[in-house]
Amino acid sequence: MDRVLVAGCAGRGSYARTRTDKHGFPRLRLPRTKHFFSFATGDLVRAVVPRGKKAGTHTGRVAVRASGSFNITTVQGTVQGVNHRHVRLLQRADGYAYTWKEEGVSSRP
Prior knowledge:
By secondary structure, the chain is mostly beta strands. It has one domain: SH3 type barrels. Helix content is 0%, strand content 52%. It has strands spanning 2-9, 18-20, 26-29, 35-36, 39-40, 44-49, 56-63, 69-73, 78-83, 87-91, 96-103. It has a five-stranded antiparallel beta sheet with strand order 9-8-7-6-10, with no helix packed on it. A hairpin with a 2-residue loop joins strand 4 and strand 5 (39-40). The chain is flat. The mean pLDDT is 88.
């Protein structure tokens, strides 16, 4: 069987720096920057957490926070509150989500 690289559109976030209510008035203020501790939401990362409740190795997409406490979405689920000191970058976010897919057997000779 052959493997095929599948790229899905994930986007690169929003330029707006506020959230509005149903009437269009500003409700929340968002951070002025999308990068925190040299990471951006959507980066592919590996976190090696040495001890504590979230101990172990987690690989997946990161959601960043200004506090430095990141969420990592893995195949098994989401790990919340991983400190930025344990996180290492594997691939920068480029607006796409990549995955491998097994290709079925072709009926052609």
